Amino acid sequence: MSYNNEQLNKLSLAGFESTLRFAQIALDSAERLVKLQLDASKQSLEDNTKAAKQLTELKDPQEAVNHLNKLATQSIDKAVSHSRNLYEVVSGAQSELSKLVEESVGHFNKSLISSIESVAKNAPAGSDATLNAVKTSFAAAAAAVNTFSKAAQQVAEFTDSSVKAATSATADAVKNSAKRGATV
Question: What are the residue boundaries of the Phasin domain, all occurrences included (predicted)?
Fold first, then answer.
């Protein structure tokens, strides 16, 4: 009986530790997101104040148009950079949470296998077929979870590369557009 209580205690402690780690990951990610947003807001306020002062000092309308084009290009570059930073924080949190889930599932699987083996040692004669069926079912479920995890990781990697390619393409398009606008 004490062996079962010990197993239960270990399982409870592992669950508690996983919950604490989940909370820490969530809080750290939220903190980074809030800091990123506050920094972006401060920078935007400073940039807009500076731009307004510069525009009031310009006398030539063409110079004002060129300056506004330059400001628009800078704003888009900053927005792309900010979205990249946001994506990195969210992607990092997702990656950490995925690792946590994989570890938790792994610990649970080990605990379950240990319990099945313990039951198998004390099982009555003739129950081998039933225990083998349980072990086979469990192995199939573990393989399915593993396959799902790998597929989810591949989707995350594909999404990551797609987002990076899209932000680079956007930044390049803005730069090319700004160059064309400056030469016209």
Answer: 6-104
- The C-alpha atoms of residue 64 and residue 173 are separated, in whole angstroms, by 23
Tens-digit pLDDT profile for residues 78-121: 998 898 899 899 989 988 988 888 888 888 777 777 777 777 77
The pair of three-digit structure tokens given for residue 178, joined into one six-digit string: 């700004």
Q: What is the 3-state secondary structure (H, E, C) of the chain?
A: CHHHHHHHHHHHHHHHHHHHHHHHHHHHHHHHHHHHHHHHHHHHHHHHHHHHHHHHHCCCHHHHHHHHHHHHHHHHHHHHHHHHHHHHHHHHHHHHHHHHHHHHHHHHHHHHHHHHHHHHHCCCCCCHHHHHHHHHHHHHHHHHHHHHHHHHHHHHHHHHHHHHHHHHHHHHHHHHHHHHHHHC
**Could you give the count of Cα atoms lying within 13 Å of 106 in the half-sphere of its Cβ?**
9
Q: Is the pTM of this model over 0.85?
A: no
